[in-house]
TrEMBL record:
GO CC list: cytoplasm
One Pfam family named in its UniProt record: His_Phos_1
Enzyme Commission no: 5.4.2.-
Catalytic residues in the record: H10, E82
InterPro entries: His_Pase_superF_clade-1, His_PPase_superfam, PG/BPGM_mutase_AS, PGM_Phosphatase
A GO molecular function held by the record: isomerase activity
Gene3D superfamilies membership: Phosphoglycerate mutase-like (3.40.50.1240)
Protein name as annotated: Fructose-2,6-bisphosphatase
Organism expressing this protein natively: Clostridium saccharoperbutylacetonicum N1-4(HMT)
PROSITE patterns: PG_MUTASE
UniProt enzyme class: isomerase
Keyword terms: Isomerase
Length: 189
């Protein structure tokens, strides 16, 4: 039986606005970030999508987004956290190397790319192996992108542009594999 995972990036934060690297470090949602989460909530409501379970990264920005999107109880999971960018945390995004980052951040106390991808993939797989059918998980931009990359070989849907705040990625899960079937981007203007 196919199960569904809705993986969402959190709403805009103060660090997003100021163009600061915010992997394991955190900053609060902006007014726009709150609006983005409300738009995502309305999407689920308008499409009569009801979640069995909900999960969030342990970061405040992800938890706050989830609490706006749905009022069901949820579990916080460290496995859904953003990439650990090491000493680049809190610094200007101008210091980032060109994409793909590869293992650049590992040299500065951060995570290796494959290790990070495996963490996110293993966490989502574990979530879907529980007694879940329709799941909401709130995570982060690089986490969502790397989860997409990890499962790119099963999916024909892709998005080359950056994963925007509150972008919704809809995955089917069957036979221990994820398949990206839809990307929902909203116009927040």
């Amino acid at each position: 039986m196919k199960k569904i995972l809705y993986l969402i990036r959190h709403g805009q934060t103060m660090f997003n606005l100021r163009r600061k690297v915010q992997g394991f470090c955190d900053s609060p949602l902006t007014e726009l970030g709150i609006k983005q989460a409300k738009v995502a909530a309305k999407y689920f409501e308008d499409n009569n999508i009801t979640f069995d379970h909900a999960y969030s990264s342990t970061s405040e920005r992800a938890c706050d987004t989830l609490e706006i999107v749905t009022d069901i109880p949820y579990k916080r999971l460290k496995g859904l956290k953003e990439w650990n960018f090491g000493t680049f945390e809190g610094e200007s995004e101008d210091l980032n190397p060109p994409i793909p980052y590869g293992d650049f951040f590992a040299k500065y106390g951060g995570e290796e790319e494959k290790e990070f991808q495996k963490r996110i993939a293993d966490t989502c797989k574990k979530i879907m192996e529980e007694d879940n059918e329709i799941v909401l998980a709130v995570s982060h931009g690089a986490a969502c992108r790397n989860f997409m990359r990890y499962w790119a070989y099963t999916s024909s849907v892709d998005q080359k542009e950056r994963i925007g705040n509150c972008c919704i990625l809809k995955f089917e899960y069957e036979n221990q594999e994820f398949k990206l079937i839809e990307i929902i981007n909203h116009n927040f203007n």
